[in-house]
Amino acid sequence: MTDTADNIIVTIDVEKYYNNGALHALKTVNTTVKRGEVVVIVGPSGSGKSTLLRTLNQLETIESGTIIVDGVDMYDRSTNINKLRENVGMVFQGFNLFPHKTALENVMLAPLKVAKRPLAEVTEHARELMYKVGLADRMENYPSQLSGGQMQRVAIARALAMRPDIMLFDEPTSALDPEMVGEVLDVMKSLAAEGMTMVVVTHEMGFAREVADRVLFMEEGALLVDASPDVFFDTPPHARLKQFLSKIL
Amino acid sequence: MHAKQKTWLWNAVFIGIVFALSYSVYFASQKIEYNWRWERVVPYIINTDAQEITAPGDGTVEIDERNHQLTLVVDGETTPFVVKEYTELQVSDGDLIFEGDTLATLEQWQIGPLIDGLIVTIEISIYSLVIALVLGLVIGLMRISANPMLRNMAILYIEVIRGTPLLVQIFIMYFFIGTVMDLERFTAGVIALSVFTGAYVAEIIRSGIQSIPVGQMEAARSLGMSYPKAMTFIILPQAFKRTLPPMAGQFINLIKDSSLVSVISITDLTKAGREVVSGSFAPFEVWFTVALLYRVLTSTLSWAIQRLEKRLSASD
Ligand SMILES: Nc1ncnc2c1ncn2[C@@H]1O[C@H](COP(=O)(O)OP(=O)(O)OP(=O)(O)O)[C@@H](O)[C@H]1O
Ligand SMILES: [Mg+2]
Hints:
The complex is a heterodimer. The radius of gyration of chain A is 18 Å and the shape is globular. Chain A is an alpha/beta fold. Chain A contains nine helices and ten strands. Chain A starts with 6 loop residues before the first strand and ends with a helix. In chain A, the strands form two sheets. In chain A, strands 6-7-8-3-9-10 form a six-stranded mixed sheet, sandwiched between helices. Chain A has helices at 49-55, 81-86, 103-113, 119-132, 148-160, 178-193, 205-211, 229-234, 239-248, and strands spanning 7-18, 23-34, 38-42, 64-69, 72-73, 88-91, 166-170, 197-201, 214-219, 222-227. Chain B folds into three domains: 1-34; 49-108, CATH 2.40.50.100; 113-314, Orthogonal Bundle (MetI-like fold). In chain B, 65% of the residues lie in helices and 10% in strands. Chain B has helices spanning 2-31, 42-45, 113-143, 148-162, 166-181, 185-210, 214-222, 227-257, 269-280, 283-312; strands at residues 46-47, 51-54, 59-64, 69-74, 81-83, 88-89, 96-97, 102-106, 110-111. Chain B has a four-stranded antiparallel sheet, with no helix packed on it. Classes of the chains: A alpha/beta, B alpha+beta. Chain A binds chain B through residues 57, 59, 82-83, 85-86, 88-90, 92, 94, 96-102, 109-110, 113-115, 142-144, 155, 158-159, 162, and chain B through 213, 215-216, 218-226, 229, 233-234, 237-238, 241, 312, 314-316. The structure holds adenosine-5'-triphosphate and magnesium ion (MG).
């Protein structure tokens, strides 16, 4: 169990390898996320940011260590991973909307088929969410008829439809044209303001500075820095981070 | 303008060649002094001749004009032979009848043996198509399973079936498995065709599933869907759409391959054709007709699948 009930995500000594052990993708990662916290992960390409994020809903399995989500040990044999995932929404860089479903159907599918909530309730909630992400007039469109920014906002609504306590974002704006980045970040900011627990991998340093409670820096699978945005950006506590920031800022 | 003229020219050449080919068929048949008698095929498709109703045994006729009923009291039998549907009587009340005598005629259109065969071909094709689809889906899913036992079973099945001729499989199914398990010809034929087509369908479904980006499965799983749910609601509907064109080809092959079951004496369209040839003395006409009927079946199927494709393209 966790030391404080407030820690909604706890990772203890997480190790992850790829290619039959040839690639050490996560090196003894220890961190916690408090309920309602916004944690941003940054780092160079290939440093293991996506890998870490994806272990938090077991899209990637780990070789050793412990991950506790909302008090549940993810690798306990009795843990129902599907049940756990209902509580952890995920937004992908490539949107991954279901192309054969309309925007509204994308949002409604999991609540209907997984949570088995009644249709009327699901429809109303889905409409609310589409309204919330600013796409009230796009509900009947198929993904192919939407812009990148609109697709990503539908994807956020789809993840929120399961009423998760945690939201994971893996570079949600990296595949977008610059003029569409803002609309997606705005939705994420409003989510953060509502107190959603969020773990966000992004290159948007402005977002990290403005919204994050803590910023993590990863390099070569290791978590090198864990600091508040002010400290992270103004007085970087690690030489590698200083180097990284000088390159991207 | 110039390009358009050329198109016209080539179309004209095409039509010319088709005419030349048709003429050469005609010319060839002239050469062997073949008389084309298409009218001979017609009764084998639809028989419009009046049928004769004959007596099943010796006996006496009773006719009830009011109720439009003919009763033949057959000697030595307790139940009389009753005819209710006829057009014209050939006997009168009280006549003494011998076995085989014509009692009455009935003018009613009757489907001929070629259409009977066509119906059998359609039945075989539909049963085989449905079973092959289910079988192919199961094997296709096993083929991409993480479990090596399931995967290897699927590979073994696909390799064995695709590596041996269908005709041999039909013989094995009928003469060996059919005998052991006491299968009827029709059942044996349907199973052989289903097992054969299922192997190809499995490969089509596997490649269809693998053509769906992994992000789709990840998105579905991240929403809490189990693997079967993600397959059912997300992956398979998309894969299904993509597999329609190769699936159409496979099912057209199935219809054509079904002609091979005639070797185990199932009276399908091909077998019916063979029987009709010997009765009609018009082999060319009969085989051309059989080919045309197959062609009607296959083009109906591809038309139906094209319509389905159009319907499913709403989200593109
Ligand atoms: N499925 C996989 N199989 C093998 N190696 C992988 C796999 N996924 C990631 N890796 C490797 O693991 C390392 C970490 O990858 P990861 O995707 O987590 O990096 P990242 O920090 O998200 O990078 P980026 O900013 O480019 O998205 C990289 O070296 C990558 O090549
Ligand atoms: Mg990444």
